[in-house]
Amino acid sequence: MEAPWTFIGVFTGHGPLLMAVHLLLVAVIILFIAKAAISTMKAIPTGAQNALEAFIQGTISMGNDTIGKDRARKYLPLILTIGLVVLISNLIGIIPGFESPTSNINITLPLALVVFIYYNYEGIREKGAKNYFAHFMGPVPILAPLMFPIEILSHLSRIVSLSFRLFGNIKGDDLFLAVLLMLVPFFAPLPAYALLTFFAVLQTFIFMILTYVYLAGAILVDEDH
Questions:
Q1: The pLDDT of residue 222 is above 70
Q2: Which of 108, 174, 197, 198 is within CB 3.0–4.6 Å of 163 for a Cys-Cys bond?
Q3: For this UniProt entry, which segments traverse the membrane (predicted)?
């Protein structure tokens, strides 16, 4: 199947430059939302301020349940940035003539690598390299030669899981919408838009909560286990 037609693709073609420009567009949208939210701050939020505050509160609540109140706020900038990038990237592909940056593995893989490197760095920083890698050995010393490579593979598989889950789901959604618009381009796709919006939000939530879970597993690990 041919790549879906896009407004930007008319000028860039379908390649890395197309994804780069769409990703830049996502960044501009996020900056615009942030600017709109803080330009007229009110005690009773409305519009962009209300939406952004709700997103922030939801992110904090997610972290409170996963990693604790103090650490949820500490890691809020990371999780919030990832969440906004993934959410806007997911949603932009629902608009005909645009393509989701997250439908490209070259975008989702770096996001997964950022999470992987950061949570391991935080685990080592909080616990020290010796204690951090000690929990890779398992609860019984005799099982260490078996458990250590299994744990290493388990952690490496998180890169694949994070990147391919997001890429696969969003790519599938984009192709589904493209086929639907070719077959019934007017009113029939309207229920699909609602469904695809739900999936876009769901995939964002999954990426954010898994980032919190991986951070919790790295910094809250029991040193005796």
A1: no
A2: 108
A3: 15-34, 75-98, 104-121, 133-155, 175-196, 201-221
The residue whose two tokens read 């939406």 is: 51
Do residues 7 and 18 touch, judged by C-beta distance below 8 A?
no
Average pLDDT over residues 40-56: 87
The torsion angle over the Cα atoms of residues 179, 182, 183 and 185, rounded to 10 degrees, is 120
Q: Is there a domain that residue 192 lies in?
A: yes
* Rounded CA separation 172/169 (Å): 5
pLDDT at 223: 44
For residue 2, give the DSSP letter.
P
139/66 Cα distance (integer angstroms)? 23
CA 23 – CA 20 distance, rounded (Å): 5
Q: How many domains does the chain have?
A: 1
104 alpha-carbon distance from chain centroid: 13
Q: What is the pTM of this model?
A: 0.90
State the average pLDDT over residues 81-104: 93
Say if 3 falls within a structural domain. Answer: no
Residue 214: which of 154, 167, 166, 170 has the closest Cα?
A: 154
Q: Which domain covers residue 163, as residue numbers?
A: 9-219
CA distance 73 to 59: 9
Burial class (CB in 10 A: 0-12, 13-18, 19+), 221: middle
